[in-house]
Design goal:
Structural class: alpha+beta
Oligomer: single chain
Largest sheet: 6 strands, mixed
Order of helices and strands: HEEEEEE
Strand order of the largest sheet: 1-5-6-4-3-2
Number of strands: 6
Helix content: 10-25%
Strand content: 15-25%
Shape: rod-shaped
Distance between the termini: 85 Å
Length: 138
Amino acid sequence: MKTPRTALVALLAGAALTACAGPGTEPAGPTPTGASPVTSQPDPGPSTGPSIGPSRPDPTWKGGPSKPTGPGATTLTGTIRAGVEPNCLLIDDNLLIGGPRDVLTPGARVEVTGHAEPGMMTTCQQGTPFVVESARRA
């Protein structure tokens, strides 16, 4: 009695997994998760204009305003300290993103203008990302 029930469960599971494959899909070799490998990237389609999203500050920029400060601009003044990861610089609990690296050095007292980007992902593991628009020694 147990063998026919086990066979029925296995048959139903196989049918359910087969039904998950969409029409026109080619069977792929087995993977550890049972998922099919991705063989092509989706076409992004025609460009509709400039990309909107976070931009990377120019690391060769030598200070001064790179653009007029916007209505949400904030100015921070303080002494820069090195973060726990290489090339990570902080003022208080703000992680400095971009800006002139000849001005932004550990131990320097500076004034930076920019805006906080709390949702930005970084590898520095500390501080709230603060995108620097301008920086000068204080």
